[in-house]
Amino acid sequence: MQIQTHILTTIAVFEVGDSLKKVIQFFKDNTYSHVAVSEKGRYLGVLNEADLETFEEGKKIEDYRYNLESFFVRKATNWLDVLETFARNEANLLPVLGENEDVLGYYNVTDVVSVFIDTPFFTEPGGIIIVEKGIKDYSFSEIVQIVESNNTRFIGGFITDMHNDVVQVTIKIGASNLNEIQQTFRRYNYNILFGTEDDQFLEDLKQRSDYLDKYLNV
């Protein structure tokens, strides 16, 4: 999935020598969580809107250099890593850097999540299976092979949890042969956590999943 067309180039990038008055006004005029700061055209970090009350209008950004947080993505960063960066930093605006460490623009979380929800994983009819297996023992190629060996289409999948050397993968498949596919996963020593042909699960995932709510409600 290509999200580069959603890079916003009209949002301000401040220079470290700028007055904090400009930054204060920026946050008052917008609902963004962060804004990027550069030095001589090279990215330095972001200022957090949560620190707004500590900013003094008469000072420069330079005086608050220690407040800068350092997170960003590259133009080539894949969309799942972009979503992860949003969540990990509790941000709704994310700087996108170029090869010369310059700020090309920003991703807005609403734009990226909207693209995600429009993918076939959510729009195609089918069934959902959640499986888990040891991190060293699973592979996506094996998961796809298990689905397709049962004459069923693999629509998509992504890692939804990883802990104690166990990985959890949510996959979407064509609605046929669900029971047979689950039995095949068990023969390959996958633990089945969830399996349904009910597309209401997708509706619940869109509206109530902690994974997506984190982005939609920042």
Structural commentary:
The protein has helices at 20-29, 79-88, 109-117, 120-123, 140-149, 178-187, 200-208, 210-216, and strands at 14-15, 34-39, 42-48, 73-74, 93-97, 103-108, 127-134, 154-163, 166-173, 191-196. It is an alpha+beta fold. Strand 4 (73-74), helix 2 (79-88) and strand 5 (93-97) form a beta-alpha-beta unit. The radius of gyration is 21 Å and the shape is elongated. The two termini are 23 Å apart.
Attribute tags:
single chain, 218 residues, alpha+beta, four-stranded antiparallel β-sheet, three-stranded mixed β-sheet, 32% helix
How many strand elements?
10
Number of helices: 8
Most strands sheet: 4 strands, antiparallel
General form: elongated
Q: What structural category characterises the helix and strand content?
A: alpha+beta
Order of helices and strands: EHEEEHEEHHEHEEHEHH
